[in-house]
Amino acid sequence: MLTAYDYPTAMAMDKAGVDSILVGDSLAMVVLGYENTLPVTMDEMLHHARAVARGAKSALLVGDMPFMSYQVSVEDAVRNAGRFLQNGGMDAVKLEGGRERADAVRAIVGAGIPVMGHLGLTPQSVHQLGGFRAQGKTAIAAKRLLEDAKILEDAGAFSLVLEAVPARLAEYISKQISIPTIGIGAGAGCDGQVLVTHDMLGLFERFTPKFVKQYANFHAEMSKAFTDYIDDVESRRFPAVEHTVEMTDEEWEEFIK
Ligand code: KIV
Q1: Same structural domain for residues 172 and 228?
Q2: What percent of the chain has pLDDT over 70?
Q3: Whether 163 is catalytic
Q4: Of 2, 19, 77, 162, which is most buried by a Cβ count within 10 Å?
Q5: Distance between CA 115 and CA 104 in Å, rounded?
Q6: Tens digits of per-residue pLDDT, 156-202?
């Protein structure tokens, strides 16, 4: 699984055979430039979800429910989850949290909408967690995480993201539940993996979590392309003849006479 927020990226992922695409609320940080994921709205998420849905025809598409779209009431949660399928072209939704979200998960699943859970480092709770920190590092916290995973499974979640938790805990949880776990910063013992695409492509310069493997440095590539373009334009190497529309000599003579 990888995240995507636009049409060409979704197309490239589909072509490469990525199983599932998450339109993550990481959109807020890596595309919209916010400090954290809290400001992004349902309407903004849907706008990007539709672009991804137009680009990807094979991958399972998961819309990430933004902050305050499911926390206020179960009714809100069902309605907003429905919007991802009805207006966003998504196949499923993801939401953050454990036992406190069980009712919302049950109700959304009851409405026929597949739900992916998200435990461990849940970025929408960044202020409660005291920052973007690894979770489940004490025995008590690990027990709570395992309980939450079982509660989400019982509530009907079809899969679970485990973010920034110790690898051996993630592997243990993955074996204790029957739904697939998708890890991010949770080691190789999960059933699948997800990364924020802007991190793995080196597009997001501001901060790269330790658990990211960078497969490219698109930020450097982009900067080079932009400076090369400026050089070419200033030195009049661009546009060259092959980039230019021509006019016949006869028409030109007619024009200037
Ligand atoms: O928003 C997001 O991109 C996510 C992934 C980190 C799982 O939730």
Answers
A1: no
A2: 100
A3: yes
A4: 162
A5: 10
A6: 999 999 999 999 999 999 999 999 999 999 999 999 999 999 999 99
> Quick check: 214 and 199 in contact, CB under 8 A?
yes
What's the half-sphere exposure (Cβ side, CA atoms, 13 Å) at 26? Answer: 22
| Ligand 1 contacts CB of residue 160 (under 6 A) | no
Set 163, 242, 250, 251: catalytic member: 163
Is the dihedral angle over the CA atoms 119, 123, 126, 131 positive or is it negative?
positive
Q: Which residues contact 57 (CB under 8 A, 6 or more apart)?
A: 14
pLDDT at 42 exceeding the cut of 90: yes
Count how many domains the chain has: 2
Give me the residues paired with residue 253 across strands: none
pLDDT band at 23 (very low <50, low <70, confident <90, very high): very high
Assess whether 139 and 246 both reside in one domain.
no
The whole domain housing 229 covers 221-256
Is the peptide bond preceding residue 209 cis, with omega within 30 degrees of 0?
A: no
Expressed in angstroms, the distance from the first to the final Cα of the chain is 64
Local structure of residue 180 (DSSP, 8 states) = P
Pocket of ligand 1 contains residue 52 by CB under 6 Å: no
Assign residue 187 the CATH number of its domain: 3.20.20.60
pTM, full prediction: 0.96
